[in-house]
Amino acid sequence: MSISREQRLEKKRLKAEAEQAALDRYAQKFMRLAIKQARVAERKGEVPIGAVIVKDGKVVARGHNQREQKLLATAHAEILAINSACKRLGDWRLNGCDIFVTLEPCTMCAGAIANARIDRVFFGAYEKKGGACGSVHDVLSNTGLNANVTVAGGVLEAECSSLITAFFENKRNKIANSR
Ligand SMILES: [Zn+2]
User: Fold this and answer.
1) How big is the CA angle at 73 (ends 148 and 95), to the nearest 5 degrees?
2) Which residue among 75, 95, 129, 139 is least packed, with the fewest CB closer than 10 Å?
3) Catalytic-role residue among 42, 46, 78, 127
4) Which residue ranges in the chain fall short of pLDDT 70?
5) Which one, of 67, 76, 71, 6, lies nearest residue 34 by Cα?
6) Among 72, 23, 53, 73, CA closest to 116
7) 74 C-alpha vs ligand 1 centroid, how far in Å?
8) Which of 136, 137, 138, 135 is nearest to 149 (CA)?
9) Distance 48 CA to ligand 1 centre (A)
């Protein structure tokens, strides 16, 4: 007895669905840790953006936005996490690593991700004004960078974007109240 074409297609569809569900679970699990990092930034009065880098299912580095504290234009969550992962793994090549970041990376961070040879980027909220992973620029799809990075946006998007909007709302309210 041979299985029909329909049965084969159905089997294929179910397999693809199961794979997507497993990837979603993986993405959400580590995005929650990136959100924790964003909250660390928030407590320090920084714009709440967080990142984690994962290799073989384990977190190898964390980072949160520290631009104000360090007074450094480059102190974005992704850059700090990449620096820490390179140090920890003793290599500038982060092949086999995934990065999870609460906000779509900017051009600088997308460039650093490509240079570090990170495999995949999972981001939460879309950054309509300067996002470089599809919103405004699409740095990682640029073959000129010689990068082979897969991008998935919108992971826990509502939670990630409400972090940022709440932060700026609070800030506006504080300014309004101090007048
Ligand atoms: Zn950045």
Assistant:
1) 25
2) 129
3) 78
4) 1, 142-146
5) 76
6) 53
7) 7
8) 138
9) 12
Strand ranges, E, within 4-84: 50-55, 58-64
Q: How far is the CA of 172 from the centre of ligand 1 (A)?
A: 23
How many CA atoms, within 13 angstroms, populate the side-chain half-sphere of residue 84? 18
The verdict on pTM exceeding 0.90 is yes
Q: Quick one: pLDDT at residue 123?
A: 98
Q: Is 42 a catalytic residue?
A: no
Among residues 79, 108, 83, 95, the alpha carbon closest in space to that of 147 is found at: 95
Helix 77-89 to helix 107-115 angle, to the nearest 10 degrees?
A: 20
Q: Where are the beta strands (DSSP E) in 70-141?
A: 97-103, 120-125
CB-based contacts of 150, cutoff 8 Å, min separation 6:
119, 120, 121
Specify the pLDDT at position 36: 98
Query: What separation in Å is there between the alpha carbon of 121 and the centre of ligand 1?
Result: 13
What is the per-residue pLDDT for 145?
Answer: 66
